[in-house]
Amino acid sequence: MLALSNILVNYDGSRILRDVSLTVAPGQVVCLMGRNGVGKTTTLKSIVGLVKPVSGSVKLNGQELVGLPPDGRARSGVGYVPQGRDIFPSLTVWENLRIGAIAQGKRLNGELERVFELFPVLKEMLQRKGGVLSGGQQQQLAIGRALLTGPKVLLLDEPTEGIQPNIIDQIGETIKTLRGIGTMGILLVEQYLDFCLEVGDVFYIMDRGAIVAEGPIRHLNDDIVKQHLTV
Ligand SMILES: Nc1ncnc2c1ncn2[C@@H]1O[C@H](COP(=O)(O)OP(=O)(O)OP(=O)(O)O)[C@@H](O)[C@H]1O
Ligand SMILES: [Mg+2]
């Protein structure tokens, strides 16, 4: 469903992504792992359209996304929860939730109830400003906002970063619930190994801009972890 082929990205003349290829199928949770600065966020940005690859292809259900602007890609079904969450601090939870869907001219009906089922805390806090929510609540808001755009593939950039364990568990359960629906693929950038082992189906590991290991998550053994993930 989502297929990246041979993505090359340069920043200021230095090569940041080298031939990155990966696929995410519906109902699958794919973990993209790797140490700091290896190119994980840049990979997501090239899917979302915030970074322009020198060459390579990004296809969603066969449709080429390279060349489309970010809003066009969102309409095509790319949902994105950026690293650091990027919610609007001075807008209310309600306004934050609606903003993505409104930008696409979508009406919210059943989807909103679905998001409140996944994250009941959001329903209680609809009139609060986004900026006063805790880190975990902001993460839930950012995921909820992305879901309301009706994505075919959901990109999550380090959703557990700086979040307390009980909220991490809740986000893990949410990811499993979304996987269980079976229609959406999830590409999860994550450095927290246990979380990947818990929710992932497939892993890819990056090092210095390239995919250096990949396979079903049960093949992720100590040797691979030592070689590519521990610092
Ligand atoms: N806008 C930019 N201009 C120049 N270099 C950049 C830019 N954004 C990222 N880089 C560089 O590209 C490389 C990959 O960055 P990226 O953010 O993709 O890494 P990452 O794997 O997501 O790291 P982290 O785990 O710390 O989030 C890094 O060396 C970074 O310094
Ligand atoms: Mg990053």
Task: Write a short abstract of this structure.
By secondary structure, the protein is α/β, with parallel strands linked by helices.
Could you explain the architecture of this structure?
It is a single chain. The chain has 231 residues and is α/β, with parallel strands linked by helices. The protein has one domain: P-loop containing nucleotide triphosphate hydrolases (Rossmann fold, 3-Layer(aba) Sandwich), CATH 3.40.50. 37% of the residues lie in helices and 26% in strands. The strands form 2 sheets. Strands 6-7-8-3-9-10 form a 6-stranded mixed β-sheet, with helices on both faces. It has a 4-stranded antiparallel β-sheet with strand order 2-1-4-5, with helices on one face. A hairpin with a 2-residue loop joins β4 and β5. α3 packs parallel to α6. The longest helix has 17 residues. The structure holds adenosine-5'-triphosphate and magnesium ion (MG). Magnesium ion (MG) binds next to α1.
Distance between the termini: 33 Å
- Report the β-strand fraction as a percent range: 25-35%
The domain tally reads 1
Task: Using the alpha-carbon principal axes, give the shape.
Answer: globular
The helix-and-strand class reads alpha/beta
- Biggest sheet strand line-up: 6-7-8-3-9-10
CATH architecture: 3-Layer(aba) Sandwich
Low-pLDDT runs? none
What keyword list fits this structure?
Rossmann fold; binds magnesium ion; binds adenosine-5'-triphosphate; 6-stranded mixed beta sheet; alpha/beta; 231 residues; 37% helix; 4-stranded antiparallel beta sheet
